[in-house]
Amino acid sequence: MSSMVKAHPVSQQRKSSLVESVAAGMITRSAMVLTSSLHTREGQSHHVSGMYENTYQLKPDQIPKSCQLREIVQEVLTEHLSGLTYDQSLGVMTKKLAEQMKQRAKELALSRYKYVAMVVLGPVTRTSASLASRCVWNPTYDTFGEFTYTNHSIMATGVLYGLYVE
């Protein structure tokens, strides 16, 4: 029995392609996964170049305290929202507040920590709001701080997570 294999050329820059086999008049298909991308084949890797040794560090030198992160959230929200009245255009400020919280947390200079900030901002009304979040969590090294700021017309809740990256 003769068998012909027809493979699609690599020049199509596809990460996976089909291989068609013709055996005894039947066409069968199977998937072929290419393990290298165009960049690595041409010597241009998108990864960081250089040699680094593994540190095998499984725990942080210092863990951020929840009260430190709460204080950062409280300072940022109070600093930017005090004296303001609620307006719908204030909603775009949430991104600025979250970025400011992350920057201040990075100033703690704790290595291998990633910070995630979340801000919810709205008017003070008689309605209620619920806020929930979920993530993979290591209770030994990961922590968070939260604070809710309110004045006569604005309610804002900020949460700052400190996650250890091994």
Q: Which class of the largest domain in CATH terms?
A: Alpha Beta
Strand-and-helix sequence, N→C? EEEHHHEEE
Q: What ranges have pLDDT less than 50 throughout 5 or more consecutive residues?
A: 10-22, 27-41
Percentage of β-strand residues: 25-35%
How far apart are the termini?
55 Å
The CATH topology of the largest domain is Ribosomal protein S3 C-terminal domain
Coarse morphology: elongated
Topology overview:
Blueprint: E1 3-7, E2 16-23, E3 26-33, H1 38-41, H2 66-81, H3 93-106, E4 113-123, E5 143-150, E6 154-164
Antiparallel strand pairs: 1-2, 2-3, 4-6, 5-6
Helix pairs in contact: 2-3
Could you walk me through the main structural features you see in this protein, from its secondary elements to its overall organization?
This protein is of the alpha+beta class and 166 residues long. The protein has two domains: 39 residues, no CATH class; 99 residues, Ribosomal protein S3 C-terminal domain (2-Layer Sandwich), CATH 3.30.1140.40. Helix content is 20%, strand content 31%. The protein contains three helices and six strands; from the N terminus they run βββαααβββ. Strands 1-2-3 form a three-stranded antiparallel β-sheet, with no helix packed on it. Strands 4-6-5 form a three-stranded antiparallel β-sheet, covered by helices on one side. A hairpin with an 8-residue loop joins strand 1 and strand 2. Helix 2 runs antiparallel to helix 3. The longest helix has 16 residues.
